[in-house]
């Protein structure tokens, strides 16, 4: 499976399509169920595509680029349905709400530092918050209406936010370099983060769907597990 002319920096799966973004500024889509897997090419960014995320219903694809743009694509057109240009740095961090359709969140790089919330029905920006640091990753909890963000320069922190109030639930520190990677456990309670400091850290961030508990500080364990609730 090929097609890109330069490095492929980001991938996103939905139930049947693999989308890939590259330094060649293009997004390629492949249907992995069939032998002739190439589906199409989306052209809209002016520089490297560094963020991709499918909506929860698989109908929309959000892409972020080093051109500071956030584009939203749908299955009916090869042209972007929305072109959102309020970020002032690269848009790598993207997440769709599992609780509300057409609700998208994005994060900007070092010169921007903001998390921005969008209604993709009309393209309106609903809210934003300045985090004070480069936004590297975003993930929406499926258990509660909260978001986790990971950061780079200058604080390398991990933050948990309530939505829609955008009040901080917790600020987690421990990584000494940019927090490049974020993944969530299948039960939606634990996240794992990876950073340029060559460590993986596990955090019990979100409550279960059945037993929410108050936030508590239990300290930090290097390469261990930290709980905030």
From TrEMBL:
Similarity field: Belongs to the WD repeat CDC20/Fizzy family.
Matching PROSITE patterns: WD_REPEATS_1 (PS00678), WD_REPEATS_2 (PS50082), WD_REPEATS_REGION (PS50294)
Protein name: CDC20/Fizzy WD40 domain-containing protein
GO BP field: anaphase-promoting complex-dependent catabolic process; cell division; positive regulation of anaphase-promoting complex-dependent catabolic process; protein ubiquitination
Domain CDC20/Fizzy WD40: start-end pairs: 3-203
Molecular function via GO: anaphase-promoting complex binding; ubiquitin ligase activator activity
Alphabetically ordered keywords of this record: Cell cycle, Cell division, Mitosis, Repeat, WD repeat
Listed GO CC annotations: anaphase-promoting complex
InterPro entries in UniProt: Cdc20/Fizzy (IPR033010), Quinoprotein_ADH-like_sf (IPR011047), WD40/YVTN_repeat-like_dom_sf (IPR015943), WD40_CDC20-Fz (IPR056150), WD40_repeat_CS (IPR019775), WD40_rpt (IPR001680)
Pfam family, one: WD40_CDC20-Fz
WD repeat feature ranges: 42-83, 84-128, 172-205
């Amino acid at each position: 499976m090929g097609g890109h002319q330069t490095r492929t920096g980001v991938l996103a799966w939905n139930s049947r399509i693999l989308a890939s973004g590259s330094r060649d500024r293009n997004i390629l889509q492949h249907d992995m169920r069939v032998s002739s897997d190439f589906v199409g090419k989306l052209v809209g960014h002016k520089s490297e595509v560094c963020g991709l995320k499918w909506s929860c219903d698989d109908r929309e694809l959000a892409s972020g680029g080093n051109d500071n743009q956030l584009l939203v694509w749908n299955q009916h057109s090869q042209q972007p349905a929305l072109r959102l240009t309020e970020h002032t740095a690269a848009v790598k961090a993207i997440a769709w709400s599992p609780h509300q359709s057409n609700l998208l969140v994005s994060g900007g790089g070092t010169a921007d530092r903001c998390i921005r919330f969008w209604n993709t029905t009309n393209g309106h920006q609903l809210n934003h918050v300045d985090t004070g640091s480069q936004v590297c990753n975003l993930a929406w909890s499926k258990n509660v209406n909260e978001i986790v963000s990971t950061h780079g320069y200058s604080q390398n922190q991990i933050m948990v936010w309530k939505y829609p109030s955008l009040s901080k639930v917790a600020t987690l520190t421990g990584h000494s370099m940019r927090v490049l990677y974020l993944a969530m456990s299948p039960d939606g309670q634990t996240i794992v983060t990876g950073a340029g400091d060559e460590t993986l850290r596990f955090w019990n961030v979100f409550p279960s769907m059945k037993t929410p508990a108050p936030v508590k500080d239990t300290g930090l364990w290097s390469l261990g597990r930290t709980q905030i609730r």
